[in-house]
Specification:
- The complex is a heterodimer of chains A (115) and B (116).
- Helices cover 0% and strands 57% of the residues of chain A.
- Chain A has strands at 3-5, 10-14, 19-21, 24-26, 32-38, 44-50, 56-58, 64-68, 73-78, 87-96, 99-105, 109-114.
- Chain A is an all-beta fold and 115 residues long.
- Chain A is globular, with a radius of gyration of 13 Å.
- In chain A, a hairpin with a 5-residue loop joins strand 7 (56-58) and strand 8.
- Chain A contains no helices and twelve strands.
- Helices cover 0% and strands 48% of the residues of chain B.
- In chain B, the strands form two sheets. In chain B, strands 2, 4, 5, 6, 9, 10 and 11 form a seven-stranded mixed beta sheet that branches.
- In chain B, a hairpin with a 6-residue loop joins strand 7 (65-68) and strand 8.
- Chain B is globular, with a radius of gyration of 14 Å.
- The mean pLDDT of chain B is 93.
- Chains A and B meet through strand 5, strand 6 and strand 11 of A and strand 4, strand 5, strand 9 and strand 10 of B.
Chain lengths: 115, 116
């Protein structure tokens, strides 16, 4: 069965510093991977997705993620964090290629940004 | 495109009462999903519809839970005889799916249920 692991429950960075949030997945075939962000009291907003092609994908708000099949990872990065990036970040995998129907989420990483 | 909307945003109810939540998807989207999110966890899949057909239900969805999408547009999620363990954020999402193409789910703001 598919699963997603986000090893870091909570990360704190200073504004302007770089950021990397880790995501490891377990999936037998080519995964369909997502990163979502959730601000307090809000629903989830899609940051970026990967299903094929270039393993470095660009998303909104200056985020990017790199798919590494050999490491079963899909880490999210941002070169310079802004205070407004403080939120909860979720990595998710679609159940099957070309068919997201059931998304399987990790437990999330809470990002705190210090001025 | 006004996004996915959910109503109510917050619901406080007493144990044993029934509650119903509504989700309005993005208008042209043919798939609609329900997830549940408890504190400190990621969303967990409950069920999804393609048009009016309910295609899958999670084992998390006990007999007290029922979901409908009668005309293939909005959906309702009803919880009967609520229990304290039902307290959670209930998230709705929608997507435009077609065979052979990828889709992505757009989420609503959620309905936070508190059972006292």
């Amino acid at each position: 069965a598919q699963s997603v692991t986000q090893p870091d429950i909570h990360i704190t960075v200073s504004e302007g510093a770089s950021l990397e949030l880790r995501c490891n997945y377990s999936y037998g075939a080519t995964p369909y991977l997502f990163w979502y962000v959730q601000s307090p009291g809000q629903g989830l907003q899609l940051l970026l997705k990967y299903f094929s092609g270039d393993t470095l994908v660009q998303g909104i708000k200056g985020f990017e993620a790199e798919f590494k099949r050999s490491q079963s990872s899909f880490n999210l990065r941002k070169p310079s964090v802004h205070w407004s990036d403080a939120a909860e970040y979720f990595c998710a995998v679609g159940r099957s290629f070309y068919n997201t129907d059931k998304l399987i989420f990790g437990t999330g990483t809470r990002l705190q940004v210090f001025p | 495109d006004t996004g996915v909307s959910q109503d109510p945003r917050h619901k406080i109810t007493k144990r044993g009462q029934n509650v119903t939540f509504r989700c309005d998807p993005i208008s042209e989207h043919n798939r609609l999903y329900w997830y549940r999110q408890t504190l400190g966890q990621g969303p967990e899949f409950l069920t999804y519809f393609q048009n009016e057909a309910q295609l899958e239900k999670s084992r998390l969805l006990s007999d007290r839970f029922s979901a409908e999408r009668p005309k293939g547009s909005f959906s309702t999620l009803e919880i009967q005889r609520t229990e304290q363990g039902d307290s959670a954020m209930y998230l709705c999402a929608s997507s435009l799916w077609a065979p052979g193409s990828t889709d992505e789910q757009y989420f609503g703001p959620g309905t936070r249920l508190t059972v006292t």
